[in-house]
Design a protein that fits this description.
Layout: H1 8-34, H2 39-57, H3 76-87, E1 91-97, E2 103-112, E3 117-121, E4 131-134, E5 140-149, E6 154-160, H4 164-169, E7 184-188, E8 199-208, E9 219-222, E10 233-236, E11 241-247, E12 250-253, H5 254-262
Antiparallel strand pairs: 1-2, 1-4, 2-3, 3-6, 4-5, 5-6, 7-8, 7-10, 8-9, 9-12, 10-11, 11-12
Helix pairs in contact: 1-2
InterPro entries: Peptidase_S1_PA
Protein name: Serine protease
Keywords: Membrane, Transmembrane, Transmembrane helix
Amino acid sequence: MRLEDLTHSQIILLTALVSFVTAIATGILTTSLLNSADSQDVSRSINQVVERTIEKVVPQTIIQTITKEVSVPTNEGEKIVTAINTASPTVFKIYTYKTDGTYQTLDSGIVLIDKKIVITTAKGIDRNSTYVLKLDKEQKISLKLSVLDDERDLAIFQLVGDLTSLTKSLPVLPFAKATAIGQTVVGLGASEGADNNPLSVGILLSAGTGNATSTNPSFFKTNAANADTLGGPVLNISGELVGLVVRPGVVLSVHDIGESIDSIK
């Protein structure tokens, strides 16, 4: 019978038998050797007999356990840092062409790469201008305006052109499924300097229903939204999108953002 054919109970009994046989062999050998050899020879002989006894009773079986150490955020501060690091690559500055051919810097925007769109505040956006997303000094992505909702203060652009590099480099930003007044949130913005992007940590202070239901409010007030983060995301500590900063202190909820995205034909 092979070892792998044994039942759980049989393996337990076999283990007990091995221990019993080993104990008997060790005891007998120890008694006989103590009178005829020095201590080093005794220890060496005992070990050899024990090894041979075990090999005869149970064939050698090697079980390898591989443990992978994974760092998990353990407190709110660590979770906030993780959320910021994860979502920051999705936040860019939006630019428009001026009449002299130069660029004018507008507010921040959030790239939702899974939907191939950019969302931002409607401030400064019109249907007659040309807009781009600057990935760096050399690379630009053209934007096509799809939604301009002044009531919600929301603009949605479709990304145009080769999106291969963006698709490979940007994370998917999930939408929060639930929010609660008093929960910790983080507001992010983009700047023209890559090393000093603005951010602000605060809480959701209150909810305004607007045209939505009380269960799914249109707007939230938060101290994590300010002029530096206009057009940027407000995240919970799990890194999920709670809303879009449309005015200082005011966030458009993901519920209304989702409805506007669904309206794109």
